[in-house]
Specification:
Alpha-Beta Plaits, alpha/beta, globular, six-stranded mixed beta sheet, five-stranded mixed beta sheet, Malonyl-Coenzyme A Acyl Carrier Protein, domain 2, about 300 residues
Length: about 300
Amino acid sequence: MKYALLCSGQAGQSAELLDALLAASDLADLRALAGELLGEPLERWWRGLGSEGVFENGPAQFAIALYQIAAWTRLKPLLPPPAVVAGYSLGEVVAWHVAGALDARATLQLVRERAALMDRHAPAAGGGLLLWRGRSTPAMRAVRDRCMQAHGLAIAIQRPDGSLVLGGTRAGIARFLAEPELAGVDLRHLPVSVPSHTPLLAGAVQPFAERIASYPFQTIDTAVLAGIDAHPQHRQEEAVVSLSSQLAGTLRWDWCTETLLSLGVAAAIELGPGKDLATQLQTCAGIPARALSEFGSPAACADWLQAHIDAV
């Protein structure tokens, strides 16, 4: 069964993200682990964040990673190991857990350290991400690039549909959006509070590399795609470079999509939250892909996946 698992990044979370996990009797051990790492019961911590707090960098990264670990905990017994795991931003850390290199405790600890370092080295005045939707003409690309340079923005993520995620300081993004030449462009603020994957976070790269190197990685057969260049990884030394470099470098999700296609992946499941990665993969590469949340149960998801693999 040659399939891929996709681990989402930030922006798809909501105040209801952890409701199922909090109510599930079979996930009690995972809730206890999360509470131990947080220093308070998981539900109290989560409810205390409020609707805006769930989008703050530290809580968002921890909650999304926990959500994905819970999803994989339920899905894993129903499937053989995936051939490859691809993670989008934060999701690349969780991808190493799905591939079997890190246990849940190490993954959640590493995610917390990642978020703390990003917050520590982010611009003091704040920053964020902006989605530039769709493909552009050469003339518009020239305008875009000129405005980006003028206001200190950088390309954070290149997506397979031609869309870009741009990152910069809060003030720089505001000036960029006010440019008359960009009127009419399809632009959307993403609910992310740091300029991830841009040079503004360069100070976090080396400290995070040192933290990754300190964790015990297990030997794995499942490949993890590197977000920075889409090459399949199996070793801790590769994780040290790719996971740290992506904090301040452009993610090539367009290349990751091409690599999944070249590897002969027959279908893919996105752990979530959301279904953005699955939609991109199906639309841009023609690979059947769904989000776990689209199914009524993990068993139904496994049945769908099996049917698509069998049909190849």
